[in-house]
Amino acid sequence: MKQFKNLIAGEWVTGASEVENINPSDTNDIVGTASHASAAQVAEAIAAARQALPKWNAGTVQLRSDILSTISNELFARKEELGELLAREEGKTRAEAIGEVGRAANIFRFFASEVVRIRGEKLASVRPGIDVEITRDPVGVIGIITPWNFPIAIPAWKIAPALAFGNSVVFKPSELTPGSAWALADIIARAGVPAGVFNLVHGSGPVVGDALLNGVDAVTFTGSVKTGNQIVRRATERLIRVQAEMGGKNPLLVLDDADLETAVSCAVDGSFFQTGQRCTASSRLIVTAGIHDRFVDAVAARLDKIVIDHALKAGTQVGPVVDKRQLEQNLRYIDIGINEGAQVRVKGELLKRETPGHYLSPTLFTGSSNQMRINREEVFGPVAAVIRVKDYEEALSVANDTSFGLSAGICTTSQKYARHFQTHAEAGLTMLNLATAGLDYHVPFGGRKGSSYGPREQGTYAIDFYTILKTSYLSV
After folding, report:
1. Which of 62, 144, 305, 440 satisfies CB 3.0 to 4.6 Å to 171 for a cystine?
2. At 179, phi and psi to the nearest 5?
């Protein structure tokens, strides 16, 4: 059985306890054991990162670029192997998992180029004989905390810019996906990153996450609203830089003039694929009266044909829920929706397959209101609710009536409504005739309101979090 160890100061070390990593497609299959670090080991990792930081930052941008390119190349070369590992421990299909590894490879390749394009400015002072230069310094030791739903891509879009811009890293992955994190860390370590510059510590939030927040210079987090709020408070108390992506309750508007096939595809893909376990999932389907009934019928018919099975089985379209706790949460929200008075057009049911797993069919509610809990709180599963509205104006009002603001989509053939929505949707991402889930690797990612806190992730905008501007005056 594979043991997923911690990487501290360039050495692979066992932790204080071992926790089994269970395959959600086959709960009899143990992928490996994660070696959970102690708080003292986290402190050692932070100390190692701090000690390694000056030499790493003093190295050339070409060195950092070459190392990131090496990481990218190995991810590309091993994407099928790593994708299978990812699918086995997380539950997304093999095709989705391979695609995620490819995305991670592209992210490292992108930042391998960005590192040699770090820009500054030279300005004239208002005083004679003085020049002004504006440059960027690394922030320091970056604490990285990532979720289980994209266990290679999300770490990649945090680790790659952190290293590119001269920082050192202590990385805490989700307890549910230690294998993908270990595989990525192994590639990074062998790519030539000096000992201590990159560290991996497995474990729980109360132990490892808490210890991490005590010593780093900045923390970047993706995960739940509750945990994100706690991290933001802790970080601001210490006056350290913080970036938090915390989920969404994303609307997809379907207007009377929408192409029905397009709208149905957007809704089914965005709401139910990857088992609905995406922070950008379309969990609120806001549909105008003229198309409502046809849309609901078509979505229900499409859901009846979705193939739900083992993540690695050929032909599977949707895999299992990631673990028992998440499955129980999904079932609770289905009951909540029923008790609130929403109508069940398609009811999620526990499914039996050849292997024991956390299989759940999709749930589609109709007749729901925007004030119901199923439309206010993030379920993070294959559950979506239809809200019937009169017209575009009411649809936009309902879409914006939420504490979240990550992604928002609209299906329409009207340029007037499309442009108005792009301007007035209170979200960090807007989609026209596309699923709310899905983003390129080279563009900024983030939301508004309770979905996000701090600078954007990804693309050229990532530099704003991972560097500090310095203004220098020079007497000439």
Report:
1. 144
2. -65, -45
